[in-house]
Amino acid sequence: MSERRVSIVWALLAAALYAISSPVSKVLLGDVSPTMMAALLYLGAGLGMLLLGVIRRQAGLGASEQRLTRKDLPYTVGMIALDIAAPICLMAGLATTTSANASLLNNFEIVATSLIALLVFREAISRRLWIAIGLITLSSLILSFEDASSLSFSSGSLLVLAACVCWGFENNCTRMMSQSDPLEIVVLKGFGSGLGSLVIAFAVGESLPALPYVLGSLLLGFLAYGLSIFFYVYAQRQLGAAKTSAYYAIAPFIGAGLSLALFREWPEPSFWVALAIMAAGAYLAAE
Fold first, then answer.
1. At what angle do helices 73-94 and 155-175 cross, to 10 degrees?
2. How far is CA 94 from CA 99, 124, 153, 283, in A?
3. What are phi and psi for residue 107, nearest 5 degrees?
4. What pTM, to 2 d.p., does this model score?
């Protein structure tokens, strides 16, 4: 199998793991406050990947991976700061909007990542991807309307979109470090962003939930953030930030399906219109 096809497999596996994040987080948010949830998710990613690193080292693997260097420091700081802001916005948005809506809106990350890759990092964007960006943006606008007659937007949806913009910048920071060891990147990301969010959570008066919810959140963080980001960074090496984000587009559809199965909430007709437009955009983005 060619390196490019292997990278596509990594990107799709990363998407499948991340897809469980929104619906399961929505369940846990009944007992875990939003900022605390964001902290536990990233701490779970950091702890899980640190353990995986110990196992890898004992097995004598990963010796050829490059270490992060001083030139990576600005991107590392940016990555951690953005990963503090993004999940807090996402969890706050999930608390006030449906999980299915939030899952689909996560595809706006493709738009943010691609435009930032173009404007800041000079990655090329094809005509096909421009059309995909337009369709995904249109779908995101439809999903964000709370009341079409008064043109008011859902605050929860806007928070999810804000998270996507933060992750768009973060994806491009991570892209600049993608030749370095993905496991080291995820451990730094997990502990840096997790501890930062934990400080904010305590500062605003949130407290740790009961132990079962702490463990559930940590496990979710390891799977949906730790392993997902690990595979995502591997994919970026060959595909670049914009294209990897495009393959990642299947995650919201898996997440939306899980949400509908878990919560039995029948969406408004506008959701299905947005779903069809988003699917067309995701298809074009992934080609």
1. 160
2. 6, 33, 15, 26
3. -70, -15
4. 0.80
DSSP element (H, E) containing 277? helix 269-286
Q: Which residues contact 20 (CB under 8 A, 6 or more apart)?
A: 220, 223, 224, 254, 255, 258
CA angle, residues 215, 192, 111, in degrees to nearest 5: 95
Three-state SS for 145?
strand
Tokens representing residue 224 in the block: 């949906």
Between residues 41 and 145, which one has the greater pLDDT?
41
Over residues 185-201, the pLDDT tens digits come to 889 989 999 999 999 99
- The Cα 143–Cα 269 span in angstroms is 11
**Angle at which helices 211-221 and 34-58 cross, to 10°:** 60
Q: Which two tokens stand for residue 237?
A: 């090496």
d(CA 8, CA 11): 5
pLDDT 10s digits, 32-70: 999 999 999 999 999 999 998 899 888 887 777 888 888
- pLDDT tens for 87-107 read 999 999 988 888 878 888 887
132 near 282, Cβ under 8 Å?
Answer: yes
CB 221 within 8 A of CB 48: yes
- Rounded to whole angstroms, the Cα distance separating 10 from 189 reads 19
Of 280, 285, 275, which Cα lies nearest the Cα of 103? 275
Q: Give the burial string for 110-138 (b: 16+ CB within 10 Å, else e).
A: bbbbbbbbbeeeebebeeebeebbebbbb
